[in-house]
Each structure stands twice: as C-alpha cells, then as structure tokens.
Design goal:
Layout lengths: L2 H53 L7 H21 L1 H27 L5 H21 L4
Helix pairs in contact: 1-2, 1-3, 1-4, 3-4
Length: 141
C-alpha cells in the first residue's frame, strides 16, 4: 500500500476518533447531569426530612411526611447505586479523553513528512491496536 493511501487511512481514523469522542462526550455530560440532579433531589429530600423531624417535636403530625421523605431519599439512593451512573459517566469521560489524545497523536504524525512506508505501516497497526483497546474498555454507545 502506498504512503498516500496510508495517510488517507490515518486521516479517516483520526476523523472517526473525533466523531466517536463527540458521542462519548455528549453522553458523559448527559449522564453526569442526571446524576447531579438525582443527588440534588436526594439532598433536598433529606434536608426537608430533617427539618420536618425537628419541627415534628412540636407538631407530631409532621413526623409522617418526614418518614415519607426519608423513605423516598433511601429508595432513590439505592436506585442510583444500582444504575452506577458515576462509573458510567467516568468511563465515558475516560474514553472521550483517550479518543481525543489518539486523534491528536495521529494528526501530529500526519504533519511529519519524514516517515518511511514501513514506519507508516507500523504506525497504522499501532493506531489500530490502540483503538481496539479503547473500544474494549469503553461502554458501548
């Protein structure tokens, strides 16, 4: 395969890395936002429950909503742990970073014109191996 075809293949690989990284970045932001909103809602439930418990000393009827809010916060927290959103958005962030770094590395090598045909061939196989490692550890979109 001539050097020109290998450069074209590397440009396509870099473009694919950028496209995939955008998808992972978008999903990372979406999952992180959901996780943050769940944390805020749970914290609000706990704060209201604490307030109602304190006020419930004077007005015992308020202990019922306090118990309900505590139960809701507990159920939401357990569901959040089961879905493991933090690990999911961390893995998406790592995959995004790895893909961006790989595309930068490819673009840097493409800017250099001193490589021989064998060196390009080795670099193409190295990039393919790195891509397969990244895809093996990534959560499928």
């Amino acid at each position: 395969m001539p050097i020109g075809d290998k450069k074209k293949l590397l440009r396509q690989m870099a473009k694919d890395c950028v496209d995939k990284s955008k998808l992972y970045r978008r999903r990372h932001k979406k999952i992180k936002w959901r996780d943050d909103m769940i944390d805020i809602f749970t914290s609000s439930c706990v704060a209201c429950s604490m307030s109602l418990t304190i006020v419930g000393i004077t007005f015992p009827i308020l202990l019922i909503p306090s118990a309900v809010l505590s139960g809701i916060a507990f159920i939401i927290t357990q569901a959040q742990r089961q879905y493991d959103l933090k690990r999911r958005y961390n893995m998406d962030g790592i995959t995004y970073t790895q893909l961006v770094e790989l595309s930068r590395e490819i673009n840097i090598v493409l800017r250099k014109n001193h490589m021989t045909n064998e060196e390009y061939e080795d670099f193409v196989s190295d990039v393919s191996n790195k891509l397969s490692l990244i895809e093996d550890t990534a959560i499928i979109i």
